Each structure stands twice: as structure tokens, then as C-alpha cells.
Amino acid sequence: MPDLSPPLGALLASAPPDLSDAEAMALARLHFGLEAEPKRLTSERDLNLLLRDAKGAGYVLKIANRAEPHAVTTFQTEALLHLESTAPDLCVPRVLRTLDGATEVTLADGSLLRVLTYLEGTPLHLAPRSGPQRRAMGRVLADLSRALASFTHPAAEQDLLWDIRHAARLRPLLPSCPDPASRDLSLRCLDIFEAEVAPLLPTLPWQVVHNDLNPHNVLVDPQNPDAVAGVLDFGDMVRTARVCDLAVAAAYQIDPEDALGSLTAFVAGYHEAYPLLPEEVDVLFDLTATRMITTIGIASSRAASHPENAPYILRNFPAARTGLQALTALPRDAARRALRQTCGME
């Protein structure tokens, strides 16, 4: 089995691939027969370019970070192929084949090149939010998770820093947080996670999950923002406790003005389509907070190391900080009861 466990944070510490637009377009032409105008897309780890051909069709040319093992990149590609064959109605990117039918190209420096279809829509972080939208997003994530439940791959066992079951590792990163109040609150939540949540995770249902349904990875219909138009970025997929995936997504659904209502709306949509176990519901509140401190810890540390890319790296930091404050202001036991009631368990 290939080595899937680079040193902690090695991938996050490696700069994205450096390739000129002309070089990238030459590769697109050679391997995919694409003639298109390139536009750089912001990415924390990989090189991503939006290509539009003469007919207006959009594609994303992706060159994986050199620190990412090939097996991990292939894991992402094969997951999309699995979804294409088993859940064709899901609004996710499709893999474009090369002129000779391959799904990936190994470049001279060892990097892997892929091209995916480009999904149209309004990024969620630019759209108005609502309860019906949160419920719809819960259903979409449930449909995606249910489709991935039958997918396996050796690289699914990768050691991923963003997998919140490893949240205890974040302790050394939290001193980088520029906000002392957020740092102290994060440490208290981490104590709860280590003592009460982490020991239960091995006993819960596990599967391959998307693991990064943040507002930059979701598209909605411009004419109807309550309708989800696409799910992007499968780069953080991993096999972990299923409820961790729900907690990751829930962390970005918290409305500080109605923390509990926004959380329960999202969870209700998920549970309707892919029912949760009572044991999963009982840890969801704390896991949602854990995702927020994961964002705070990793983003703070990474931005300090890469100030030139700090605006992109810190894009989710303000929401995580505000959301964590709002979530932890709720009485913990009452919030857990409300989640049980939402799922018809009380």
C-alpha cells in the first residue's frame, strides 16, 4: 500500500504548483484537445485554472500539489467516477477523459493533471441564506454520503489533518490564533472533544465522506438560492465516522442570530434522507464545535506560514470564530435534546 501519511501538515505547508498559463494551455491542448482561455482560480494546495471553450463550456484544469501522494489524487478521481455511475443525478463535477481515454496524466515532474467539468451557479458564501436552503443542503449532503457509502479505496485511510477525529493534534497550532478569546474558547472545546467525544467515534458508522462542505464548495441556483446547484472540491475526502462529515458541514450553517434553529434545520434535512443513529446525534453538537476549532487552528497556523495567501486561507476564519461563540453560548444539554427532537428521538 502506498505511503499515505506525510508528516503532519506537509501538504498544507507545500506551495501550490507553479506553471504559466501558456504551459497549462499547452497541456490541455496536448492531452485533452481543449482550446480555451484560461483563468486562474484561487486554491490553497493545487493549481486550478478555469477553461472556457468557444462554445462556452467550462472545465477546470487541476494539477495536484506535489506533496499529495498519487494514490490520494486518484482516490478523488475514482470517487467522482463512482458517483457518475451510481448517482448520476448528483450535482458534482464529472471527470473529462484524455484523447486516449485516460482520467489522469502524469507530468514530467511527477505531478498529476486532471480536467473536470465546471459547474455553474452562485457560490453559497455570496448568496442569501434561509432555513429552506439549509434543509435542502442537508438533503444534498445526505444523498452524497449515501452514494459514497458503497465506495472504497486504499487511500480513503489517509491520515488527514482536516479529519476532525484527529482534532487533538490541533493543540500545538492554536497558539497561532491572533484572537486570544477564540484561542481560549477553542482549547476548552478541545478538552470536551478529547474527554467525551473522541472515545466514542470508533463505535459509530464509518464510511468515505466528502468532509468539506463549506460555503465556498457549494453552489446554489442564482434564480432560486434555496436550491443547491453543485458540490465542489473532493480534496479532503477520507474514511471516517459518518457524523464527522455532517458536523463539518453543520459548522458552516450556524446563523449567530439563531444558532440552534439554523443547526436543526440542516440536520433535519440530512436525517430525512439518510437517518442518523441516536449515538451520532448525541455527539453532533460537540463535533460541530470541533470543526470550528479545526478551522481556527489550521487557518491561523497556515496563514502565519504563508502570508502571501492569507486572505484565501483565512476566508472561513471569521465565520468559524463567530459561529463558535454563538454555538457555545447555547446550553449544551438543551442543544443536544433539541437535536434529538429534530430527529424524532424524543
UniProtKB/TrEMBL annotation:
Enzyme class of the recorded protein, top EC level: transferase
Gene3D superfamilies reported in the protein's UniProt record: 3.90.1200.10
Pfam short name (any one): APH
InterPro entries with a match to the protein in the record: Aminoglycoside_PTrfase (IPR002575), Kinase-like_dom_sf (IPR011009), Pseudomonas-type_ThrB (IPR050249)
Annotated GO MF terms: hydroxylysine kinase activity; transaminase activity
Keywords, comma-separated and alphabetical: Aminotransferase, Cytoplasm, Kinase, Transferase
An annotated GO cellular component: cytoplasm
EC number annotated for this UniProt entry: 2.7.1.81
Reactions listed under catalytic activity: (5R)-5-hydroxy-L-lysine + GTP = (5R)-5-phosphooxy-L-lysine + GDP + H(+)
Aminoglycoside phosphotransferase domain span: 48-275
Cross-referenced SUPFAM superfamilies: Protein kinase-like (PK-like)
Subcellular location, record wording: Cytoplasm
Protein function: Catalyzes the GTP-dependent phosphorylation of 5-hydroxy-L-lysine.
Protein name as annotated: Hydroxylysine kinase
Species for this entry: Cereibacter changlensis
Record lineage: Bacteria, Pseudomonadati, Pseudomonadota, Alphaproteobacteria, Rhodobacterales
